[in-house]
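Lab notes, practical 5.
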Amino acid sequence: QVQLVQSGGGLVQAGGSLRLSCTDTGRTFSRYGMGWFRQAPGKEREFVAAVSWSGSTITYTDSVRGRFTISRDNAKNTVYLQMDSLKPEDTAVYFCAAQSLPLRPLKTQDVDFGSWGQGTQVTVSS
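Output from the prediction step:
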């Protein structure tokens, strides 16, 4: 069972950096692809980045590619989202999520993710 606890986030000026962390308190983290999603006020939740269970495949949404970096440390049961060159339009609640099924190809649709973190606010001021 995957149980996700998020940390990080906060308020930063445009151009700044933040790192989000998401730790699985269960014991099966290394078998699941992991993703980050975000939801801005009044908008639908959108995909941000994902990393496969093995770490060999990574993908990003176009708006963050080159600025955000997703990584995972299976020894620490943790996935990270390093966010650099932040823009006001990155302001949102960010969620980490684990794919519903283990050892599967990387997914980017939220319906394919069955366990979610509690969410953390990221606010970028202009």
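Observations recorded by the TA: The first strand starts at residue 4 and ends at 8. The CA atoms of residues 66 and 93 lie 20 Å apart.
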